[in-house]
Amino acid sequence: NDGGFGAVYASGFHQTRPLSLMPSAARARISAIRAGDSGLKTTAAAKAALRRQLLAARQARPAAARERDGQRLAAHALAALPPAAHSVTLYVPMDTEPDTRPLLDALRARGVRVLLPVLLPDNDLDWALYEGWQALVPGRWGLREPGGPRLGVEAARAADAVLVPALAVDR
After folding, report:
1. Which residues lie below 8 Å from residue 149, measured CB to CB, with a gap of 6+?
2. If residue 17 lies in a helix (H) or strand (E), which one and from where to where?
3. Is 35 exposed, middle or buried (0-12, 13-18, 19+ CB in 10 A)?
4. Strand-pair category, 4-9 with 161-166
5. 87 or 143: which leads in pLDDT
6. For the whole model, what pTM was predicted?
7. Residue 101 and residue 92: Cα distance in Å, rounded?
8. Element (DSSP H or E) covering residue 89
9. Torsion, CA 143, CA 147, CA 152, CA 153, rounded to 10
10. For 133, which DSSP code?
11. 80, 107, 112, 144 - which has most CB atoms within 10 Å?
C-alpha cells in the first residue's frame, strides 16, 4: 500500500501515520528528492514524477489487496485514535484508494459520529453524517456522499480527529 492518512486531532497535535511500508523504490525516490539528487531539475518535477509512479503502483494493486489494505487501515486508525474521540471526519474512497468502509462501519458501530465531505458547486466542502454504506448517494465527480442533511462547512471544526487521504507517507 502506497497510501496512508493524516490525522489532525482537536488538541492541535498533528500526526501522520503510514499504513504500511512503501515500496523501496518509492522510499528511495523520496530520499533523492529530499537530497536534491533526483535527477530532475526541480523539486516540483520530482514530486510530480513520484506521484505518477505511486498512482501507477496503486492502480496495479489487485482488488483483494486493496480490501486487505482497508482492514489494516481500520485496525491502525482504531488503535491510533484517542479514546475520547467521539466525532471524526473521514472520506469515502475513490477508485483505487484504500477502502475506508471497514473503518467507517467500525467507528459507527462504536457510536462515533462520523462526518463525510460533500463537495459543493464551488469545490468547498460541506459535511454530513455517515449513516451506513447503503445510505451513500452519487455526488459530483463520481464521488459517493451521504444523502442526509448537510451540517455546514464549519461542521468539521467540532471533530475530535480529522482523517484525510494521503498518496504517500514516509514518516
Report:
1. 128, 129
2. strand 14-18
3. exposed
4. antiparallel
5. 87
6. 0.70
7. 7
8. strand 87-89
9. -10
10. G
11. 107
